[in-house]
Amino acid sequence: xxxxxxxxxxxxxxxxxxxxxxxxxxxxxxxxxxxxSDDPGKDLPINGVNHELKKMKEIxxxxxxxxxxxxxxxxNPDFIFLEELRGIVKKGSMQVEKVAxxxxxSGNLQMLILTGVFTGKEAGIDIFIVGDLDKDKLxx
Length: 140
What we know:
By secondary structure, the chain is an alpha+beta fold. Helices cover 45% and strands 21% of the residues. It has helices spanning 2-6, 9-20, 29-35, 46-58, 82-93, 96-104, 135-139; strands spanning 27-28, 62-67, 70-75, 107-114, 127-133. The chain has a three-stranded antiparallel sheet with strand order 1-3-2. The protein has a two-stranded antiparallel sheet with strand order 4-5. The mean pLDDT is 85.
């Protein structure tokens, strides 16, 4: 859905990275080309990532600073549509089946309940897992 709305798969990946990361997180271009690639060992094209970052900076979504020869990008907390855009990205990228499948790959799952943020309804708990899971895999 987000790919259709935003027309570029790379743009969606970059938006998700910035808008779903911890507040104040900074990323440099080469880091993004590695982390956002679906194919381990093969980075995203650096020119494409640079192009998308430049567009996001031009509209005011991102800020940039240089340090040690690298450009670091982070979300501009004063961007006028930040919360609305963050909400769209959260809803569009939070595919329950995708999350459940990733959790199942973390070990021997006996029970999984997704509620709260995963269903769009307020709850005291968002996720309940029973099983023997590899915590490192689960954290990823």
